[in-house]
Amino acid sequence: MPSCPRCEASIAEEARYCAQCGAPQTEDAAEELDEYVQRQAEQVSGGGGDTGDSDGFADMADLSDREQLWRRGCYVVGYGTVVVALTLVPAIGAFPLILAGIAILPPIRRLTAEPLGSSLKREVMVGIYAIFALIGAALLFLL
């Protein structure tokens, strides 16, 4: 039974990688690992594709002035709405306002990407904010 050259653990004849340390045991496995590492390095360095200009995933330094203004405005409106709604908590209309404030925050857009496959556009999140805000305002003034 052969052993791993890196950790000296015994491995099966047909094993491509060592079960103990993960070292490749065949030339094909070593090439596959090298290709994988290259792809990951390109993605991390930014050469692997889209910088995320319209989906909100880019760093603030990579965004244009307009996109930075959008993001900052969403934070201000979102947190402002939540703070105002928290002062009105005994009223039933405060809860849709809290949801509206949370919905417009940029991290929530990023979280929608996981279940949906891609993040929702800014305009969609503003629409969701407007719907919740209108429902909350209507409940506050009507009840």
Automatic annotation (TrEMBL):
It comes from the Archaea. The chain crosses the membrane at residues 76-104, 124-142. InterPro entries: Zinc_ribbon_dom. Keywords: Membrane, Transmembrane, Transmembrane helix. Pfam families: Zn_Ribbon_1 (PF13240). Residues 4-24 form the Zinc-ribbon domain. This is Zinc-ribbon domain-containing protein.
